[in-house]
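Ala-tRNA(Pro) deacylase
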Amino acid sequence: MTMARTLQEYLAHKGIAYDLLPHRRTDTSINSAHSAHIPADRLAKPVILEDEDGYVMVVIPADRHLRIGRLNQLLDRRMGLATEAELTPLFGDCDPGAVPPLGDAYGLPTIVDESLDLCPDVYLEAGDHEDLIHLKGAAFRRLMRGSQHARLC
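Structure:
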């Protein structure tokens, strides 16, 4: 598989320049960062949560863990991790486990960890397990402008 079509169309529609960075096939975001020789704190990974009101994408650095309790407090909700089976219909053009952290492209509300706002460069999964997208930090911030930003890690 190559870059997800939804992602390609979304970036083109937004006028965002990017580079595609191939790497050996990996099974996790942290392994993708190591394989591509990039800092793991600059690889944005999505965490998809759900409750009875729907799904939310939280975008955090690959080397960090989401504090779900902090998120629930912020949103005044009781969210839990979505299952892989739930993600398949939401991200149909992506390989399981290789979801791009751009919730807006897939119609999901998105919250971004503030630490990513400071990165000069940001990398994203491209929808497969063998490519990353490289964005300038300003381009990433432009894509995330409509998202909520908070300290969640």
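Helices lie at 5-14, 29-36, 68-75, 84-90, 137-143.
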